[in-house]
Design brief:
By secondary structure, the protein is mainly alpha-helical. It is built from five helices and no strands.
């Protein structure tokens, strides 16, 4: 009987997993994560054909912030591809700004806070970020290289 028809043992699976962990580099995982965040952010912005009903601006914002945090970690290993990823991030930021600035682009419950008249007076929007006391802009913002929507 051939080995092709049987399921691998737990020990064989563990050995294959260990071999993969030896081969893969942290940079590879970060690059793949950055690309996945850009693709998912574009989908959550409704940019992919047929994804307009998936629009969720909070998810887009999180994707942008994730890419902004991770990209500096891998820019040196990306070489010329870093520019293409920065361009894709810029496009995602522009889409986010356009969607966030247009009334009715995505209704409440689609990642946006309700209009101010539906919140008690003086209560901040649920997704509003409160600035930390004593903390200024991060290194990416202060370098002037990245444009941040709303700032």
């Amino acid at each position: 009987m051939s080995d092709q028809g049987r399921q691998p043992t737990e020990e064989e699976l563990r050995a294959a997993y260990e071999a993969e962990l030896k081969r893969i580099r942290v940079e590879d995982v970060i690059v793949q994560t950055v690309i996945s965040l850009i693709n998912l952010g574009g989908r959550k912005a409704g940019l992919a054909p047929g994804s307009e009903d998936e629009r969720d601006l909070e998810q887009v914002r999180q994707a942008i912030e994730g890419v902004r945090a991770l990209l500096p970690q891998v820019e040196p290993v990306l070489g010329p591809d870093a520019g293409r990823i920065r361009d894709a991030l810029s496009q995602l930021q522009l889409a986010y700004a356009r969607l966030g600035g247009s009334s009715g682009a995505a209704g409440p419950g689609a990642g946006e806070a309700p209009p101010p008249e539906e919140r008690p007076a003086g209560e901040p929007a649920p997704d509003a970020q409160q600035p930390d006391e004593g903390s200024g802009p991060g290194p990416a913002q202060s370098s002037g290289r990245l444009w941040v929507p709303g700032r």
